[in-house]
Protein: Dihydroxy-acid dehydratase
Organism: Azospirillum doebereinerae
Amino acid sequence: MPETKPPFPPTPSDSGRRLRSRAWFDNPDNPDMTALYLERYLNFGLTREELQSGAPIIGIAQTGSDLSPCNRHHLVLAERLREGIRTAGGIAIEFPVHPIQETGKRPTASIDRNLAYLGLVEVLHGYPLDGVVLTIGCDKTTPACLMAAATVNIPAIALSVGPMLNGWFRGERTGSGTIVWKARQLMAAGEIDYQGFIELVASSAPSTGYCNTMGTASTMNSLAEVLGMQLPGSAAIPAPYRERQQAAYETGKRIVEMVRQDIKPSDILTRDAFLNAIVVNSAIGGSTNAPIHINAIAKHVGVPLTVEDWQTHGLGVPLLVNLQPAGEYLGEDFHRAGGVPAVVAQLIGQGLIREDAPNVNGRTIGENCRDQPIMDSRVILPVDQPLRINAGFVVLRGNLFDAAIMKTSVISEEFRERYLSNPQDPEAFEGKVVVFDGPEDYHHRIDDPALGIDAYTILVIRGTGPIGYPGAAEVVNMRPPAELIKQGVHSLPCIGDGRQSGTSGSPSILNASPEAAVGGGLALLRSGDRVRIDLRRGSADILIPEAELADRRAALDAVGGYPMPPSQTPWQEIQRGLVGQLDEGMVLKPAVKYQRIAQT
Ligand code: FES
Ligand code: MG
């Protein structure tokens, strides 16, 4: 990292700019407003000398709170951030971001991503901030913050709160999120009771921090580093480690420098940076939520990126990181093995990384990561001995939807043998579907023997997209009926217009767009129909004649389309009217035209 400048008084901005905060705090042309803006920020002890010194005013966008346990440690880290900011000659102003707790918010935290985004845009645009530290962590906090920084485009740096320490139960690693899927199967099979279920699940959360698996949080924090928005090597440091506090201090120092150098998100978030994120997502076994969030960030910064880019640039990338749910280990192990830079270094060796993409530290990703060795090759595998080849997402399309994705790195041997082992047609399977309308319907009926679900049934869930189930529910990975699990069938193929948790190891076909609620093909399916999936051709189709499909569509239109439950809150209704589909990042459509809106 470049050397830090001396503390107060600060050196003038390197770029010779007048910082935007001076329009509030030191504007001789408008003494009335300057006095009014200034006086209230003095009332908790800042001095006029500080606020009028020209020192960069640095926002700390605080996502931690008692309601957000995954990010709560940011309340502690903020102290070290402040010290870093002050050391480098800046003034810290901390403010809250609308909480988004993945596990706590009903009906889904996902609907709050766009709400937190909107709120943060207003704050960054409307207050005297020259730069901002984005305190990222739990799944949606990372995209919400990065989307807002992209829209407003003031200098911004992200600080991950870090994963929890490894969870353990009876000598085995228990990964947060992922253990729930296993515990459900154990309980469905009668091997543990309610008490045992809770104990097993709770063992996976032994400390402050976010999910220790490679779920959406670890994925998005890793990708925020790959995108260049946080300091190299900092994403994977576990929350309680001393290096996490040290990273907070360095981050605080660095954002002040970035303001002086006028390094903005639009300088960092280039198309090359996004393509690197796609590549690394495959190599880490990243979450199926990543395309939604990464595409949303790209949309807000104005970089073209499509769901097809994920297959084109990501599918052929090998899986190198042996973390649950695709592998065995957890977040502490990932950090000790070298974290994101060690993965990037391996991929650089194969020419898979665009090395010139910049990082907030002022260097390129190539310069930052090229020489990072693997410290534990059980956790991060060398690129010539990967866990899997072709570990990215397949993008599927057909008469069921225009786009859906499937995470190939979590296709189990059991799954491959049952569905993908026909030598004539090794990458295709077909089967009869059983259709559920939303998660309540699924939970109510999954164990009903009358459905006739067998080892070759394809489970479909619809009404779970951004509009049908506001925010899109994480429900597509459906466990088979308990009777089948007892017979050793641990997963069935699943298709849905919702999402699935990044901590799930299910090879579901998900994020189907358009969703049933806006007339997507899933709305036309009936239980008993046959569906064919061909991974090599990238197709997913209902096997019924076109004329029959047209009749069904006419019948659906005649009753006013696929039924939706009423909105429960004002925001649900507002978002339903404005939101796009999952393949387009589920962004608020009118928001996208507001780009680089920061004014002085
Ligand atoms: Fe917050 Fe997993 S629930 S990071
Ligand atoms: Mg989730």
User: Anything to note?
Assistant: Residues 242-261 form the longest helix (20 residues). Residues 102, 139, 216, 474, 501-502 surround magnesium ion (ligand 2) (CB under 6 Å).
